[in-house]
Design goal:
The chain is an alpha/beta fold. It has 11 helices and 7 strands. Strands 1, 2, 3, 4, 5, 6 and 7 form a 7-stranded mixed sheet that branches. Helix 1 packs parallel to helix 2. The relative contact order is 0.15.
Length: 296
């Protein structure tokens, strides 16, 4: 990766973030080529449905694919689900991310959204880089409640689990909660010798797509555009250029530079394998093609 690479997107929701993301994987790969972005991460919410398609499409365009996931976590003693971003460094990390994603769906009660208990991170953390989730993450959740002690405690738990692989995540979409928590995030990072990382939570590729994406969120939630109390994304939740991100975080250049460092720490490429299917003509003298023809 060249020294000119100033920013790598590490928080991107493809269309596989169902009824949430609106970025088609072929469009993402092409956009990276056009913007001269040598690497990109896809972090769909609680799933890895697009991992193989993304890996093939990005690598085919000469772009380094970073497989990841934005996974919902429930901290002990709370009922609130908060996001963490996990990025795959190697094959062990990919296996662990598969396990965590499976736990989120297989071990969650039917009446609850998919999530993992916080303690599961301790058993399946190897080979994964963790971003703290910004203002909505577990640390930010307590900061928004002005509970500095619990926010710091969760951060230190994450630091212990992801030893040398934890980054304090900062986003700037102009949201009040981001503005209110940023100083505390920076203070925590410096106090506990943790690196900062800048991200943009991307749901669509171009700024002009904001209105269409807003309609998508309404369809997903069964609400109307005129409703005040509903989920919204801002016009800034698009795939910004490296130059835009460098300018946005000009006062925290290390947070931008660390996106490149993270990309350099990730080196896993998911390759396609042939499907393993049972044989339907075992022990018989006819081929599967002949048996299929006979039955049809």
């Amino acid at each position: 990766m060249s020294e000119q690479s100033r920013f790598i997107h590490l928080r991107v929701h493809s269309a596989y973030s169902l009824a949430e993301g609106a970025i088609r994987i072929p469009d993402l790969a092409q956009k990276c080529v056009e913007e001269d972005m040598p690497a990109v991460a896809v972090t769909d919410t609680n799933n890895l449905f697009g991992a193989l398609e993304f890996s093939i499409a990005a690598a085919g365009k000469g772009v380094q694919p970073i497989i990841g996931c934005q996974i919902s976590v429930k901290c002990e003693g709370t009922d609130t689900l908060t996001p963490l971003v996990l990025l795959v460094q190697n094959e062990e990390g990919y296996r662990n991310l598969l396990k965590l994603s499976s736990i989120a769906f297989m071990e969650t009660a039917d009446n609850e959204p998919a999530h993992i208990p916080f303690e599961k991170l301790s058993a399946h953390h190897q080979g994964l880089i963790c971003l703290t989730g910004g203002a909505a993450g577990p640390v930010g959740h307590f900061l928004q409640k002005n509970d500095i002690e619990d926010a710091e405690a969760v951060l230190l738990q994450l630091k212990e689990i992801f030893d040398g692989r934890l980054y304090v995540e900062i986003m700037r979409h102009g949201l009040p909660e981001e503005i209110e928590t940023e100083d505390a995030f920076v203070d925590f990072a410096y106090r506990h010798d943790l690196p900062l990382v800048a991200t943009n939570d991307c749901f669509f590729t171009e700024k002009r797509m904001h209105e269409a994406h807003d309609a998508l969120l309404c369809i997903a939630a069964g609400t109307y555009i005129s409703d005040d109390n509903r989920r919204r994304a801002t016009e800034d939740h698009y795939l910004k250029s490296p130059e835009e991100m460098a300018e946005l975080f000009a006062d925290l250049p290390e947070a931008v530079a660390n996106t490149v460092q993270i990309a350099q720490r990730c080196s896993f490429l998911l390759k396609p394998i042939d499907p393993i299917l049972p044989r339907f003509t075992e022990g018989e003298s006819v081929s599967e093609e002949e048996e299929l023809r006979r039955q049809t």
